[in-house]
Amino acid sequence: MKLHLATLLLAPLLTVVAGLHTSNWAVLVGTSRFWFNYRHLANVLSMYRTVKRLGIPDSQIILMLPDDMACNPRNAFPGTVYSNSDRAVDLYGDNIEVDYRGYEVTVENFIRLLTDRVGEEMPRSKRLLTDDRSNIFVYMTGHGGNEFLKFQDAEEIGAPDLADAFEQMWEKKRYHEILFMIDTCQANTMYSKLYSPNIIATGSSELDQSSYSHHADNDVGVAVIDRYTYYNLEFLESEVRDTSSKKTIGDLFDSYSYEKIHSHAGVRYDLFKGGADAARSRLLTDFFGNVQNVEIDGTRNTTMIDDELISLSKTIARLSELAREEELAAAHNESNNAAKPAPQPQKVQVTKPLTDDNWWTKKLVGATALAGCAALWGLGSYFESSV
Amino acid sequence: MSADIKNDGDSKPASADATVSLPATGIATVERKEPPPEKEADTRRRTWIVISFWLIAVFIGLPIWWNTTTIYRANLPLTQMTDWADGKACEPVFPLRIALDVGSLPEQEAQNLLRLTQHALDDLNDFSGHHLRLQLAQAPAETITPVRDDSNVALTIRLAPGDAAHTASSSLHPHLPILDVQYPPNSLPTANSPSSGLATYIATQLESTFAEEQNIISYLLETSSITPEHKPKGISQEVVDTVSKRMTRSLKYSQTYHLTFSLFTNGPVPSSWDIEAAIDEYLKPVLDMLKPIHDFTIDTQVQLYAAPGVQSQVLGKEDLSSFINAAEWPLSPSIGGAPTVNFIVYIGNQTIGVPSETSPGETSQSWMIPQWGSVYLLAPPAEATHVSSETLKQPILTFTSHLLTLLGTPQSGSLPMRLSTLARIRSADLLLRAASSLGSLARLTLALPSISIPSNVADGVVKTIHHLEFACASLGGAQSLEHARIAEAEAERAFFEKSMVGQLYFPDEHKVAVYLPLLGPIGVPLVMGLLNEIKAWKNRRSQKLKAA
């Protein structure tokens, strides 16, 4: 993509191409805990490695890992996570930035992330700061069922909730296009409820079909990757070597087969503007890679102009400072004039309640409660004496 | 009473094995001793107990359940919100006042010139959203300060008679929003002439001065959510393309930006730099100048042994975009809430291998990354351990001009004009964004009936509309940016209200699973008790009837 852009940069058509999207984001979510779900975390980490390899910086990847397989005491290879029994690539290498981990991976946090309804305290690195020019790749894996995906054995996200979250993103112009990929049992049901435009969705298995693991590592002792993710990765590793790759979404989807995945992978194009053809012709690097349309400067002969700029801005800043002072002085004079004829009456400060909403109601409720207690007591003693 | 024992024979397939089922009346022959009849008072008390339980369940339990499970939805002014989003509530018109300072010309001639120029302007301008209105200057132009334009005068034209032999010429004043026009004295229009060369000339000059602003504003309107009939007509695709490229490059508006200056070196030296002095000298003036529009916070950092993302000696175009080592360089964007603009000075011996377009012999040293910041490659300084303020001059000046670009400052015109244009563009941008947020919220409210809407969302919406009205009324003036800024912030806050989240969708199975264990043990005795009471009451009545 970069090379593609670079060649086009010199062409006058550039603006049309660059107008499509300006940033790439990835949201990678694993939803299962515990050692026997090793493969789900390996799935997520493999996807993380792929998008990072294709240039999406960590600041634009939101990684949700509900468990720490690398440091699990049952891990025979401490500090590492592998997605293949050849153990060639340590997915847990040096540079890994997990944004949401452990018990932070919840349905609520996931929906908050997508809709950006977060508190002031949330750091920018944990937010999805996308705009209407951002392409987002959303990958989810875990245990699921008909129209739900289980989060951490504790709760689940329903397909309608997911669809509503995407709709809210669309309403607020938080994405340009989304590639939604999910690897779980009955995965295709998860995207069946989506209704927002410009989403391409794909899943590993149909309703009532399981999604299977690919192979186990006998030394690790558990399955290390799921079939659907495995063949996605295989395609991405072999066909999309760098961002200049011309492989399209259609090529990837055509590579799925029942023989390989052991379930019927599904795709959904109807939400996409232009339908199947447009969706299939999108480059894979539009979602897995990163666009950065850098602008190279001219040479160093701009000094003169810049010097001028500096002196100019000094003058302007001084002038505006003067103007502001003038204004302040004028305001001061005015307030002085205004203050003299009508001196403010001295006010005695009374303790002010922190909030003054329903102050009287609260007082009244308190008084009533007290009176009620007293009445009860009185009534009790009356009955006691009369008995 | 007879016990009816049955060994679910229905569910089994019919079989010959009939010994399992006992005759139903097997034990009913023995006479049972009945308990003594209930006392009248006991029966009455039981009735009262059952009734009071029912009263509590209906009059206390039900309202509590209803209150605690209904979703609170504050009333939002939906039609008003949609009107704003569709552009019906506010005609986005920028009436720009242009003062005409005619100097020593007599009143009559000045009026005449004014009328003709305005006429020429109206002929030239077909975009009603951006209207240039001429007026005669009240005071001499020098007294008008650039930023404090209470008078809302965007530009002053200062006319001065020049050489008769030359045609009219004009130049923009570098410090003040003034267009100096020199005209040959004989080109002044006579009292009754229908047109004049000077008037047309001034009109054309004005038009070209404001052309960029007009293009940007029409682009903003074009891409906004407003309905087509409120959009400007006749904006060419070419204009859209160029402006769109510029707009996607610039950062989203924020009142405060955080500037991070980083020195990365590929070795152990240099380890210090005079960044403070350099910023004070070369960047501060521009920041001061931008103060009415933006605030800035600054921090700096130095990192040694910082390996770039690309190792090759000569960097090609595609290397530049992966030069930033996002994984290892501490360019954390999470300082405060303000968006960060990164400026990186990299000291190493790499060069850019892309010949510049202006002078093919030399190569450039810096590049800008849209919406992110810029990078400057610096050769290792002579004084090995320290980077002096003079060495930093060129990088900082480059960053300064990049900053202006990233902030979306227009490129043509004199600096004061560019600034005031920036303020107007930003207020239009914010206004449209706030309006479209309102529309989104309105549509969302209708689309998701189960989402809760707390009352502070309604407050935010009301505030937004209030400030939008102010901003719309003062468009083009100094106040509009402030109001648009508040409106946008309020609209964002209302839309991103934290408590408007939660799982909205509960399948029916979930509801059954929640309510059944809760209501089963309570409901069964309640209902059975009520049924028994009714039965007993009926019995009593029939007995009474019989007795009567």
Automatic annotation (TrEMBL), chain A:
Protein source organism: Apiospora aurea
Protein name: Peptidase C13 family protein
InterPro entries: GPI_transamidase (IPR028361), Peptidase_C13 (IPR001096)
Region forming the signal peptide: 1-19
Renumbered residue ranges of the record's region Disordered: 330-351
Any Pfam family hit: Peptidase_C13
Alphabetic keyword roster: GPI-anchor biosynthesis, Signal
Origin superkingdom: Eukaryota
Pathway connected to this protein: Glycolipid biosynthesis; glycosylphosphatidylinositol-anchor biosynthesis
Family of this protein: Belongs to the peptidase C13 family.
Gene3D superfamilies on file: 3.40.50.1460
Automatic annotation (TrEMBL), chain B:
Organism per entry: Apiospora aurea
Residue span of region Disordered: 1-41
Pathway listed: Glycolipid biosynthesis; glycosylphosphatidylinositol-anchor biosynthesis
Ranges annotated as spanning the membrane: 48-66, 512-531
The organism's taxonomic lineage, starting at the top: Eukaryota, Fungi, Dikarya, Ascomycota, Pezizomycotina
Keyword check for RNA-binding: no
Record keywords: Endoplasmic reticulum, Glycoprotein, GPI-anchor biosynthesis, Membrane, Transmembrane, Transmembrane helix
Protein name: Phosphatidylinositol-glycan biosynthesis class S protein
Entry keyword annotation includes Hydrolase: no
Domain of life: Eukaryota
Pfam families, per the entry: PIG-S
Intracellular or extracellular location(s): Endoplasmic reticulum membrane
Family: Belongs to the PIGS family.
Membrane topology designation: Multi-pass membrane protein
Biased composition range(s): Basic and acidic residues: 1-11, 30-41
